[in-house]
UniProtKB/TrEMBL annotation:
<dbReference type="InterPro" id="IPR018097">
    <property type="entry name" value="EGF_Ca-bd_CS"/>
</dbReference>
<dbReference type="InterPro" id="IPR000742">
    <property type="entry name" value="EGF"/>
</dbReference>
<keyword id="KW-1015">Disulfide bond</keyword>
<dbReference type="Pfam" id="PF07645">
    <property type="entry name" value="EGF_CA"/>
</dbReference>
<keyword id="KW-0106">Calcium</keyword>
<feature type="domain" description="EGF-like">
    <location>
        <begin position="228"/>
        <end position="265"/>
    </location>
</feature>
<keyword id="KW-0245">EGF-like domain</keyword>
<protein>
    <recommendedName>
        <fullName>EGF-like domain-containing protein</fullName>
    </recommendedName>
</protein>
<dbReference type="InterPro" id="IPR000152">
    <property type="entry name" value="EGF-type_Asp/Asn_hydroxyl_site"/>
</dbReference>
<keyword id="KW-0325">Glycoprotein</keyword>
<dbReference type="InterPro" id="IPR009030">
    <property type="entry name" value="Growth_fac_rcpt_cys_sf"/>
</dbReference>
<dbReference type="InterPro" id="IPR001881">
    <property type="entry name" value="EGF-like_Ca-bd_dom"/>
</dbReference>
<feature type="disulfide bond">
    <location>
        <begin position="64"/>
        <end position="73"/>
    </location>
</feature>
<keyword id="KW-0677">Repeat</keyword>
<keyword id="KW-0732">Signal</keyword>
<dbReference type="InterPro" id="IPR049883">
    <property type="entry name" value="NOTCH1_EGF-like"/>
</dbReference>
<dbReference type="GO" id="GO:0005509">
    <property type="term" value="F:calcium ion binding"/>
</dbReference>
Length: 330
């Protein structure tokens, strides 16, 4: 009789010799299954939370994500590739729902081909894995003042801190990418000085030694000033029935009531709003009323009487129809 370490097992003398586990407060009896015998498992709570992204249900049981198991989702599956567990931890990536191997010495990285911890080749940075469900790609998390180039952290500094960013081109040459309103000059960022156009809605570029000022996307030049373009008054790309809403320098499309998009009620320009089937997705719809069925409509729904019934009350309100048996039905 195995109820788990530290738990009591009681046998009942029957012709089947039945047994049961006595679980203390804070634990529950997990039923026997094809893979496990019945045993005491910990209940989840604020003091004993589910691990690795698991959620605690109303029954105080952990709903574990793919690749984890155990009462509190503390067990990670498929850890066999993380050999030499004295030096290597098997960890869980919640966003990708997959495991990965991590060396306990943070200056090392785990080589999946040789199954050993090796010195990080990044130099001035730490090795990290970019993890997806299908692959694990090694990348460098470089220290301040360095950027990754061809798997190595290379010094990359420009003469500014908050108004630009240092990058490398394909040949490994340093580039100083300045913020809007500034231009690069000798490894630093200088203000454009496009004051006649304003600051928030203006860009500048240097072509040779000549400065060019122009309006950002979403603005237009009106008598030497950048003014917001109201895309909702022009040929915007909001797909019907989405409604266009203008913003400063841009716009967005919003689905009307009864429709949904990829980001709640908002959709990308040109993206189609999908009708919500209230008969399937709403818990109430017509279920509050007698002898009716739910009929989905574009952007809405209505309640209709079943065959052989007629409206009794709220006949003019299609969502509050109470139906009675028709006296003309034989």
């Amino acid at each position: 009789c195995d109820c788990g370490q530290g738990f009591n097992c009681t046998f009942y003398v029957t012709y089947l010799l039945e047994k049961t586990c006595d679980c203390p407060e804070g634990y529950y009896l997990r039923p026997e299954s094809e893979y496990y015998s019945s045993r005491c498992e910990a209940e989840c709570s604020d003091e004993r939370p589910c691990q690795n992204g698991g959620t605690c249900s109303d029954l105080k049981r952990c709903d574990c994500p793919r690749g984890t198991s155990g009462a509190l989702c503390e067990e990670i599956s498929y850890c066999s590739e993380c050999v030499n567990r004295l030096e290597v931890d098997c960890l869980y990536n919640q966003s990708q729902q997959t495991n990965y191997c991590s060396c306990k010495n943070s200056s090392l990285y785990y080589d999946y081909d040789t199954k050993i911890c090796k010195t990080c080749p990044c130099g001035n940075g730490n090795c990290e894995y970019e993890i997806s469900y299908s692959q694990k790609r090694l990348k460098c998390n470089c220290h301040s003042g360095y950027k990754e180039f061809n798997g190595y952290c290379k010094k990359c500094e420009c003469d500014f801190s908050t108004i630009g960013e240092c990058e490398f081109d394909l040949k490994g040459e340093r580039l100083c990418k300045c913020q809007d309103g500034y231009y690069e000059r000798n490894g630093g960022c200088l203000p454009c000085g496009c004051t006649m156009y304003g600051d928030l809605d203006t860009k500048c570029e240097m072509v040779g030694n000549v400065k060019h000022c122009f309006c950002k996307e979403g603005f237009q030049d009106t008598n030497g000033h950048c003014e917001d373009i109201n895309e909702c008054e022009t040929d915007n790309t909001c797909h019907p029935p989405a409604v266009c809403h203008n913003t400063f320098g841009s716009f967005y499309c919003q689905c009307p009531e009864g429709y949904t998009g990829t980001d709640g009620s908002r959709v990308e320009p040109g993206e189609v709003c999908e009708d919500i089937n209230e008969c399937k997705e709403l818990a109430v719809s017509c279920r509050l009323w007698d002898n009716v069925m739910c009929v989905n409509l574009p952007g809405s729904y209505k309640c209709e009487c079943l065959q052989g019934y007629k409206p009794e009350r709220y006949a003019m309100q299609p969502r509050k129809t109470t139906c009675v048996k028709s006296k003309f039905l034989r």
